Amino acid sequence: MLLERICDEDLAQASYFIGCQKMGQALVIDARRDIQVYLDLAKKNDMEITHVTETHIHADYLSGTRELAAATGAEIFLSAEGGEDWQYQFDGTRLHDGDEIEIGNLTLKAVHTPGHTPEHLSFLLTDGAFADEPGYMFTGDFVFAGDLGRPDLLDEAAGGVDTRFGGARQVFASLRDSFVTLPDHIQVYPAHGSGSACGKALGSVPSSTVGYEKKFAWWARYVAEGDEQGFVDELLDGQPDAHAYFGRMKRQNRQGPDILGERGELSEMTGAEVREKVAAGTHVFVDTRGKEAVHEATVEGALAIPATKPATYAGWAFDPESDDAALILLANDQEEAHRLWDHTVRVGVDNVAGFVTSLDGLELTVRAEVSVADLEGFGHDLLLDVRNKNEYAAGHIPGAEQLSAARVLWHQDELPREGTIVTYCQTGMRNTVAAQALRRVGFDIVELAGSYQAWESANQA
After folding, report:
1. Where is the Rhodanese domain (predicted)?
2. Separation between Cα atoms, residue 387 and residue 241, nearest integer Å
């Protein structure tokens, strides 16, 4: 058996390539949308990808299941659980609890583990060439290393009303009935790690075991004692803000994401071409540098999508459902431009027209800032904290209101259209992304230099 974990550190998302080396066949679980990594693994190991599946209708990234099936001819397998409202709307073989997928000597058994979402499946894997019992469990967004998938995303991102309480009770039942009853030796491979917004305290290690989680995870004592209410209360407490683009991901993943097919090379543009296209309103320049460089000077109307996490920040800063502008990326070369594009398609930001390698020939502007020392006497209509609500609750500048950087673009009605908004985050990175997104849609934004970290230092002196 071949087992490869493919980690997208940008979105803290993991997919799995599982192959039977004897038969030369492979299956992929929870594929991302830029699929070359799976095709390369298949070629390297002289395998054919014959099956593709996913644990649930994801909210945090756009699924690559259809993309990979279209490229390889692989058969799609999808959950049939969860009730009528949670059925996929594209073709694929439907899986119920207990159904199995055979790949040579390997058997993948579907286990219905609702709670994070109603249709959620986990998969138990048996390597028939080695054992007659399962040795591995792919838990999706059910069990993470040290944590659990949050049950409140249907409320936060999919229009649900108080579904979090029923979802939390379902997570408890799934743990009690489908997880803690398993042998301790079974290795656990989740779909996310530290940095994902699909839980509140995900571990950084890539895998765990059933026995380790039963003994040490925060939830273990509640399940052991049958304390459902205590479990529900702790699971729901302190969950981070859900990114606003999660709602779009849910809809698109249920319907079936558009298939991209072959993507050619991006065109390199000149400064003059970029100026013309940006001025026409058909394109938007994307500054991929860090916050310090953007603050020194950037293109008027540019988005700030730092190259460190381009999928995450693109999801925050640009809504392709309401904005048909094409993106022009700042990149060192063709290779980096395509890498950035690979990341943006993971969140459905597909319309990238080309790239430019420098700011030469572009008209630049300096972003407005106010220092901590000048903040008190600075005239403004709103002081906006764009950190997460749990950060805000732990301490914030007096008078500030909270709306996370991942949500501001979708809650413009909560912001004053006339007047000045002063914004801050913890250190300035998220604030740069949010500030540029808001400036582009017409808000008068002044950033607090050094953000909350600078304010806190000044007030501790």
Report:
1. 377-460
2. 9
- 425 counts as catalytic: yes
Residue 202 has pLDDT above 80, yes or no: no
Q: Are 222 and 231 in contact (CB under 8 A)?
A: yes
The DSSP string of 87-154 is --SS--EEE-TT-EEEETTEEEEEEE--SSSTT-EEEEEEETTT-SS--EEEEETSEETTEE--S-HH
Q: Is residue 262 part of a domain?
A: no
As a whole number of Å, the end-to-end CA separation of the chain is: 59
Q: Residue 97: inside a domain, yes or no?
A: yes
What tokens does 458 get? 């000044």
Top pLDDT among 198 and 181 is at: 181
Q: Hey, what amino acid is at 145?
A: A
Alpha-carbon distance 30 to 381, whole Å? 45
And the tokens for 172? 């408890």
Extract the tokens encoding 89.
Answer: 């709307």
Q: Are residues 396 and 355 in the same domain?
A: no
Of the residues 7, 20, 198, 425, only one is catalytic, namely 425
The predicted-structure confidence for 328-362, as pLDDT tens digits, reads as follows: 999 999 999 999 999 999 999 999 999 999 999 99
- In angstroms, the CA 37 to CA 39 distance is 6
Same domain, 359 and 373: no
pLDDT at 461: 58
> What CATH number should be reported for the domain holding residue 450?
3.40.250.10
- Joined tokens for residue 167: 């979802």
Instruction: Answer whether 243's CB lies under 8 Å from 407's CB.
Output: yes
Alpha carbons 126 and 116: distance in angstroms, whole number: 25
> Maximum CA pair distance of the chain?
73
What is the H or E stretch that residue 445 is in?
strand 444-448
- Report if residue 261 sits inside a domain: no
**pTM for the model:** 0.95
* CA atoms of 5 and 189, how far apart (whole Å): 9
> What is the C-alpha to C-alpha distance for residues 219 and 238, in angstroms, rounded to an integer?
15
**pLDDT tens by residue, 58-69:** 999 999 999 999
Radius of gyration of the chain (CA): 23
Q: How far apart are CA 20 and CA 354, in angstroms?
A: 40
| Residue 100 vs residues 50, 56, 109, 110, 207: alpha-carbon distances, Å | 15, 16, 4, 6, 23
> Do 325 and 423 have their domain in common?
no
Q: Structural domain of residue 188, as residue ranges?
A: 2-255
From 200, 226, 255, the end of a domain falls on 255
Per-residue model confidence as pLDDT tens digits over 372-398: 999 999 999 999 999 999 999 999 999
pLDDT digits (tens, 9 = 90+) for 258-303: 999 999 999 999 999 999 999 999 999 999 999 999 999 999 999 9
